[in-house]
Amino acid sequence: MPNPLEVEVNGDLERAFKNLKKKMAFEGIFKELKRRRYYEKPSAEKKRKREEAARRRLKKMRRFAAQSKGKKVLNVRSSRDNADSDK
Questions:
Q1: Is residue 8 included in any domain, yes or no?
Q2: Is residue 30 part of a domain?
Q3: Any residues with CB less than 8 A from the CB of 10 and at least 6 apart, and which?
Q4: Residue numbers of the domain that contains 28
Q5: Is the Cα dihedral 75, 76, 81, 83 positive or negative?
Q6: What is the pLDDT of residues 35-49, one digit of tens each?
């Protein structure tokens, strides 16, 4: 069972609610709720997970390239994007 999210309420309930929503978003709870609203076919789930992994890989490559060169890398394209632009 996951750890419960705790937020301090120091008189300002709206700020506490805002902090709770931030923590929930960071933990991925909203994404999980949205995903579980409807049934997802196993093939669609595999495709989604593959695409998410590719996004994470690209993000990691951008960060690594920026750290190694000392400057920001804006456009890192996958081989699929390059193939589409050639047509």
A1: no
A2: yes
A3: 16
A4: 13-86
A5: positive
A6: 999 999 999 999 999
Print the SS3 string covering 46-77: HHHHHHHHHHHHHHHHHHHHHHHHCCCCCCCC
The model's pTM is 0.54
Pair of tokens at residue 84: 């589409």
Query: 9 near 16, Cβ under 8 Å?
Result: yes
Residue 3, in any domain of the structure? no
Give 51-69 pLDDT, tens digit per residue: 999 999 999 999 988 888 7
| Alpha carbon distances (Å) from 35 to 11, 21, 51, 53, 55 | 34, 18, 15, 16, 18
Given the structure tokens 């394209």, which residue do they identify?
A: 77
In a domain, 27, yes or no: yes
Number of domains within the chain: 1
